[in-house]
Amino acid sequence: MNLSATSKSFYEDSTTYVLVVALVTFLSLIPIEIKASERPSGTIGYLQQLEEKDWILKVEALHYLSENNVNEGLEKIFKLASNKTENSWIRSKALTAYCKIQNGSTIPPILTDFSISKDSKLRAGAAEALSFITGNKSEALSLKLINDDDETVKFNALASYSKIKKEEAWPLVQKMTSSLSQEVMPIASKALIRVGNNEALKKLQEIADAVENKRALIDSLSKTKNTNTIPLLLNLLEKTSIDNPNFAYIISSLSIHENETLVKPLSNLINTGRDPAVFVAARVITHLLQDPKIGKELRSAINNSSTPETLEAVMIALGSKNMDPDIHKEFFIGYLNNENPDIRVLSTLCLSHCKTVNLYTLFKETIKDEESRVSLAAMNALMNTPLEDAPTGELVSYLEEALVNTDTVVRKTAFDLLGHAGNADDFEPALAMLGDALSGTDTIRREAVAEALGSIAPDKGVANVARRQGYISNWMVLGTFLNDKEHKAFAEEFEPEKTIDFEKTYPSTYVWALQGNQRKDGEKAIEREIGWAEASVNKTNGMLLMGPLLPPPGTFSIAYAVSDFNSTKEQELFLNLDGDDAFKVWLNGEKIAEAIAPYLPRQSCLATVGNIKIKLKKGTNRILIKSANIENEWWVRARITDANNRPIELF
Amino acid sequence: MRTQFISFYLLFILALSNTFAQDPPSQSVGVARLTPEVRTAINKGLEYLSKEDLQRPDGSWGGDQNRVAETSLTLMAFMLQGHVPGRGQYGRAMENAISFLLNVGQNQRGYLGTPRNHAGMYEHGLAVLALSEAWGQSKNPRIKSALRLAVDITLRAQNREGGWRYSPEPRDADLSMTVMQLVALNSASEAGIAVPQTTIDKAAEYVISCQDVGSGGFKYTAGGGEPNFARTAAGVMSLIMCGQRDRKATQRGIAFLKAFPDSKFKSTNHFHYAHYYAVQSMYQSGDADFRAWYPKISAEIVSKQNKNDGSWSGSYGQAYGTSLSILILGVPYRFLPIYQR
Fold first, then answer.
1. Do A547 and B263 count as a contact with CB atoms less than 8 A apart?
2. What is the percent of chain A where pLDDT is above 90?
3. In the predicted structure, residue B3 carries a pLDDT above the cut 50
4. Distance from CA of B204 to the nearest CA of A (A)
5. Cβ atoms of residues A649 and A467 within 8 Å
6. Which helix (H) or strand (E) holds A399?
7. Which of A548, A632, A633 lies nearest to residue B252, judging by beta carbons?
């Protein structure tokens, strides 16, 4: 659809004109691959839209229905074209749509009527619609309209005539296009495209350089599959700024051509050696072609005089997974140390798509890059690298600088990578390097380090990490006694609250309910015998998860945890407690804390008591925790610190 | 390799005993003896499955939706007692069943799920399992190539988390489907089809990710769902099969199964599915666990048998219920490699 020449006079307001052109352009960009025999989605809506008062909605509907060849629309479109009260430009567009959908070989009477109308817009519509009449019955009328006084009518007729006669139309087209006004250039270009011989394309190139309304020209070019127009579009693209909306429009127009037909013109463009040409070729390859065969030529086009923009475009094109980036790995490696950090990032990303490189080896220096974005790009790439490539046992020294980087994002990413790629062999070196953070007062850093270490810690290491943060980590546990939804058993005194005998076993009961709402009233409890068992915290954040330590199912349960630890002297310290759902705590036989969180079905029920001042005696001290659970998460945690929140390790 | 050994072993037994199918010698080898009632129940069940009007002319059993699954299970039920495709009273029926499965694969470039069954990967896994168990026993030369193709599809359908779901593409995952594929892949691997260890390891990690931290039971997906008996039985069985019997997660799963109350034992959801995996888990867990478990479940299964025709009702029809009941009852036979420790 070409509005530029036929309608400018119709829209006195230039803003409206721009809107129309933008709308039609947008619609032209929508890929259309729908078979005529199927009803395209949205058909009904567009059929209704034809009856809207708003002209822009009508135009949109006409465009959609004609592009999709919706036969169901013929009746309504004909009605619109025949409606003498309707605006003549809309009527002419309706006629064009009608003829396109009908795809007939005879000239409909309405077209003949339009062709003899006094209204030049209707005659222009007739001239344009003639191009959709198959066969050669429209030849005579086209020739007649070529002699019209109105330029728009004349050139639309010429375009239709060219469609019938093709190269035979060249003498007439040549004559009529020798000198053109700006207004008719886009329509004349249609005629030239349809003739399609070398001379016509040469003339077309002249128009492309001269025409102000390039969008209309591109629109004409986007309607033909004549491969001879590809160089013209590429040439146009080279002269178009990437910020200009036409840039994407030209690429979209190129997309109608088969990939194989693009290779040669792109190759010719690359071989010109012009920096903008290489840039354009790289962009087209990225968006449309993605054929490894052209990769080497593109890579060879990069030299010392290439601009950063072109280098960037080429790297993006070659680094795509579909372009077999491995064959360009040396090229990418060459830019890992480029002075431009954007290029270093890009090189890193391209290499991350290569399958035959060991990124850990390649990025050894890159992760130390002074620019955090480069370092982050490298570490993120390593996160997706096969784990067997990681330097097992040496990962900590590999990541050393990143692990202590002042940038918190880099540091956190390094911790994540350590946790992801590290294993038990890396644990001791990591602990040696990062251990100070565990005993520091920076809570955020301490927790991040503990989490990273937790990902690579062997079972025994977990307790070690927790202990260095001040968490009591070695326990004896006993459970489960039966609880209920009101935590009644939490108030009940079981034997371990009176005497603790680790050798003793206790009769207990449980119910089989995996969720709080599964327990039925009056359900008979099942008997079993329970005894004390050694346990360590199972998380580096100091949590003693009860579920994995006690017999199932863990719902409606009470358990006890006891820890004996030594204090080298009598001292006053601070105890921080938390847990899910409830806990009572005794220190050396004296109850020091109790907390119970309100029951929330299927949610965490967090109970916390902080900064309890405690007095430890010299020698062995005993802490006893009674923990209660209804359902869902079940854990307790105890941490001892000094007055400055510095952890105290107690064994 | 073990399959070939089993095959030779079966031929040896056949040569020695004319009454093999009625009274196989392995019945006294297991840690839990087959009682006369159980033996009778199995024999009656197999007779029911072998009725001419039950097996379709194309060799399949079951309804239109799950024919591959029911045929695979039925084939396994026959093999369980030591019957060999192509030989003896059930030989022809078994050989026809194998042909049916192979034809399904041939028509779908290796994929064994019933066409249009949205959960076709279950069937694919069951068919891989049945064909793997049959390989070495059947003379059908097509089994090997069909298995290779089918296993290749399974391998390519593993998602990033390590699991599988309803369709043969690497998208989402759930525990039940992952266990099915793990069992099938282990069986195929035992039969000599190359299965990368990384595939098994990743799948085992997915299974573990479905474990509920609190109870030790297994959930439907890593992200959610409640743990239950059936899923836990499946999860435990698959982990043991992956050589992870001593892993903490497996032991917690076994503890979950053992703590499951007797009162719920008979009426658990997905009865056959749950007990098919549970009895194998307990068998693999050890003699003491199996001795305590098997009498309970065998008595329950025998009590559910339809005394008129020897069938069992199941969620997906009589062939499904009967073949799974036989597979549960017959664990002590140990003729199927997948049932061996």
1. no
2. 72
3. no
4. 18
5. yes
6. none
7. A548
Residues on chain A touching B256 (C-beta within 8 angstroms): 552-553
Statement: residue A371 has pLDDT above 60: yes
In this structure, what CATH number is given to the domain that contains residue B123?
1.50.10
Chain B residues whose beta carbon lies within 8 Å of the beta carbon of residue A634? 214
Using DSSP's 3-state secondary structure scheme, residue A442 falls into: coil
Q: Is the pLDDT of residue A14 over 90?
A: no
CATH architecture entry for A470-641:
Sandwich (2.60)
B251 falls within a domain: no
List of E strands, A295-406:
none
In a domain, B168, yes or no: yes
Strands (E), A112-155: none
Q: To which residue do tokens 């074209």 refer?
A: A81
ipTM score over 0.90, yes or no: no
Under a CB-based contact definition with an 8 Å cutoff, are residues A130 and A141 in contact? yes
CATH 1.25.10.10 at A4-238, yes or no: yes
Nearest to B136 by CA among B204, B68, B79, B191: B191
Q: What is the pLDDT of residues B44-80, one digit of tens each?
A: 999 999 998 899 999 999 888 889 999 999 999 999 9
Structure token digits, residue A146: 């070529």
Largest CA distance in chain B: 54
Residue type, B109: R
The 10s digit of each residue's pLDDT in A197-225 is 989 999 999 999 899 888 888 988 888 88
- Establish if B217 touches chain A: CB-CB under 8 angstroms: yes
Whether residue B2 lies inside any domain: the answer is: no
Q: What local confidence, expressed as pLDDT, does residue A518 receive?
A: 78
Q: Flag whether residue B213 sits within 8 Å of chain A, measured between CB atoms.
A: yes
Tens of pLDDT, residues A64-86? 999 889 998 999 999 999 999 99
Residue B23 DSSP code: S
Judge whether B259 is closer than 8 Å to chain A, CB to CB: yes
